Hints:
This protein is of the alpha/beta class. The protein has a single domain (2-225), classed as Rossmann fold. Helices cover 30% and strands 27% of the residues. It has seven helices and ten strands. Strand 4 and strand 5 (69-70) form a beta hairpin. Helix 4 (119-132) packs across helix 5 (148-160) and helix 5 packs parallel to helix 6 (178-195). The longest helix has 18 residues, at 178-195. The two termini are 14 Å apart. Mean pLDDT is 92; it is low at 235-245. The structure holds adenosine-5'-diphosphate and magnesium ion. Magnesium ion is lined by residues 46-47, 170. Magnesium ion (MG) is lined by residues 46-47, 170.
Amino acid sequence: xxxxxxxxxxxxxxxxxxDLPVLKGISxxxxxxxxxxxxxxxxxxxxTLMHLLGCLDHPxxxxxxxxxxxxxxxxxxxxxRVRNRTIGFIFQSFNxxxxxxxxxxxxxxxxxxxxPLTDRQMKERATGLLKRVGLADRMDHQPSQLSGxxxxxxxxxRSLVNTPQILLADEPTGNLDSRTSEEILRxxxxxxxxxxxxxxxxxxxxxxxxxxxxxxxxxxxxIEDGATAPAGADGRxxxxxxxxx
Length: 245
Ligand code: ADP
Ligand code: MG
């Protein structure tokens, strides 16, 4: 079973009188446990697609199957519930709360968690994640007191705090130097390999995309290449070409 399947997804933004079609019929699949890079020129619709995948927005038409359930028609509240339980986000600009400690930043999404946790449980979970991303000695630091790479590591810890199945990272290394980028990308690879986390990584940098198992290319709102995993990529034998489904 695919974790994610999009069928003919379209997204048109409406700006006053003007319709702006951005996604024009996107079909793709991502299996559980894949690490995929989404590549395309600026303005091609990558972030729009990530917003739909992350249940931040809904498509204008088409089907979004997530873990066996069609969710394109969910209300905003239902979408938020799916998002909080299933998806972790990482952004190019880190999106941490200013004047707020690393620990509090990581704890923040727990206030929307499905099961209510005690203050102590929240603190333990956030502390554990900050240790895991190598920031045990920076828990009380605010974002302005951290380097870019450290801020992104806080953001990664925050994205994991509700134990998501999917990590969506939109240009996560766009503001980082190449050595720090490499550290962050290794972290994604590690989460993918060791914990089976499904990762979708937006980038326009081939050096970044190299860290993925598959590259999906988007151009002008359409998938150019890589919409499905190559045969047998998830360890199962693929059906022979032409096999009736
Ligand atoms: P990318 O991430 O590949 O650079 P985006 O998905 O951000 O591309 O944007 C694709 C197109 O959609 C751009 O032309 C952009 O201006 C437009 N766009 C993105 N978000 C919105 C929005 N909320 N409202 C209207 N237009 C938007
Ligand atoms: Mg973008």
